[in-house]
Amino acid sequence: MLVRLQYNKTLLVFLCLLANIAYSAPKETSLKQFRSTEESHGLYEINEVAVKFLEEEKKRTGIERRSLEPNFKIWVPLCAVPLRAAWTPKEYGRVEYSVAVYCDKTVDGSYEKKWRVDIPTAPIIKPN
Predict the structure, then answer these.
(1) Would residue 22 count as lying in a domain?
(2) How does pLDDT run across 8-43, given as a tens digit for each residue?
(3) Does residue 18 lie within any of the structural domains?
(4) What is the pLDDT of residue 26?
(5) Structural domain tally of the chain?
(6) Does any domain span residue 105?
(7) Residue range(s) defining the domain that contains residue 95
(8) According to the UniProt entry, where is the signal peptide (predicted)?
(9) Which segments of the chain have a pLDDT < 70?
(10) What is the C-alpha end-to-end distance of the chain, expressed in Å?
(11) Cα separation of 70 and 47, whole Å?
(12) Residue 70 and residue 100: Cα distance in Å, rounded?
């Protein structure tokens, strides 16, 4: 009986440690939590413009790329006009096939009058 009790205690401690490790594991950050607010333009919406641009380019040129999402550290003021996207000019020193999302006019009172967010892309690899 004493051996069985010791076994149950050991098992209980092991399961508690395992649950603690699983619960405290770092969670993946989702782009969906970075939405637009009254002060800032959301990275989610910026990425959606880049994704739409990549879909249009695929239809136009056949180039198949996917967004690698913007850097989560970026903060930009809310845009007052619709965003536009294009390939990032090579002279900006970005990797080939990076998408630039532009805001040509921010809301009144913003410290920046316009901005650009570069979003890296990667080729879509199809399994053979």
Answers:
(1) no
(2) 666 565 555 555 554 444 444 588 888 988 889 999
(3) no
(4) 44
(5) 1
(6) yes
(7) 31-123
(8) 1-24
(9) 1-29, 94-95
(10) 59
(11) 7
(12) 10
Strand partners, 101: 85, 117
pLDDT of residue 102: 97
Q: Two tokens at 89?
A: 């000019």
pLDDT at 2: 47
Inter-CA distances, 123 with 75, 90, 114, 120, Å: 27, 18, 29, 11
Residue of 116, 33, 120 lying closest to 68 (CA atoms): 120
Q: How far apart are CA 113 and CA 109, in angstroms?
A: 9
Asked whether the beta carbons of 99 and 47 are under 8 A apart, the reply is no
CA 19 vs CA 6, 15, 23, 25, 26: distances in Å: 20, 6, 6, 10, 14
pLDDT on residue 15: 59
Query: What are the residues whose beta carbons fall under 8 Å from the beta carbon of 25, sequence distance 6 or more?
Result: none
